[in-house]
Protein 1
Amino acid sequence: MAEHVKELLSAYIDNELTEDDVHRVREHLKTCEECRDSLYELQLLKENIYYAYENVEVPVHLETSIMDKIYALEQETNPRNYFAFWITGFVAMVLLAGMAALVAPFMYFIARFIYKLASIGFKIWHTVPIVMSAIPYFTFMLYGGAFVVIAISAWFLYRLLLSGPYDRRELL
Ligand SMILES: [Zn+2]
């Protein structure tokens, strides 16, 4: 009896043997019941594996969620996004420039208005000493009022510090 062909049977089922080996296996199987049994068991095993593989249920949402993740990753690294970023920046710059061009004629009047306000303020500032000297005891009342305000503020600050979550009496 020729050598058994068990080690070739798997490849035989999968059609992975050379013609010579196929011939050898077929000739052997005609005479060897042991190898025929092995072939049958191997076929059964492969069918079961195939059947199990076919019946594995891949959750429907799995594929979509994987694709979503891949898509999100692509979006993150997509050069088009950088392009969109720069385009957006450019458009924003153009819009700002256009708005500045539209506003520019009015800027002169706005600047003149600000200048007028500033000069009025400056004039008022210069009249303060004149007003102060014109009103009797003005300076005295000003300093007196300021002292009262500061004293009241200090007292409130003192009370505020005392009412804190910690006893600050030791600090004061
Ligand atoms: Zn055999």
Protein 2
Amino acid sequence: MRSPAALFLALVFSGCGGSRATSSASASASAAAAVAHNPASASDGAVVYINNCSSCHQPDGTGIPGAFPPLAANAAVTGSPVAAIAIVKDGLEGRIVVDGHVYSGIMPRWNGVLTDEQIADVLTYIRSSWKNRASAVSISDVEAVK
Ligand code: HEC
């Protein structure tokens, strides 16, 4: 029997096959490869983003000046992955200044609401979307930030 994580990935990855029939053997093999490489998916992250982040940060990542900071062209997003992971996991509260606008809002913590995989996916998405061009974030990167 595979571990629950591998089984979960097998389900996710077989789901990615769409209507194509995927044999369970090849789904298991790709799940095993996925666990080994610990990838994050920007396309899955786009779905996580639309469902959980876009109401505040807007679908195009530009935010709402004075209320919700932009995630496009924001060094807090494209800089240190560890810092960005910590913000998304723990939430953020207190005064910040982005592009000359002051924000003093509260972002809820996403740890426990989203899985580590979803957090890796959404960070990979926001770091590589709009004009952002920063590195992907892996599931193990997210797991490492407590
Ligand atoms: C309810 C509205 C809301 C939602 C939903 C939301 N955020 Fe936020 N986010 C905020 C606010 C407000 C701040 C700024 C907090 C402050 O002023 O200290 C913020 C800050 C951030 C920052 C740090 C920006 C900086 O310049 O330091 C990142 C990164 C971020 N959010 C990512 C996300 C991601 C990814 C999601 C979805 C998983 C998300 N947010 C969902 C309201 C939200």
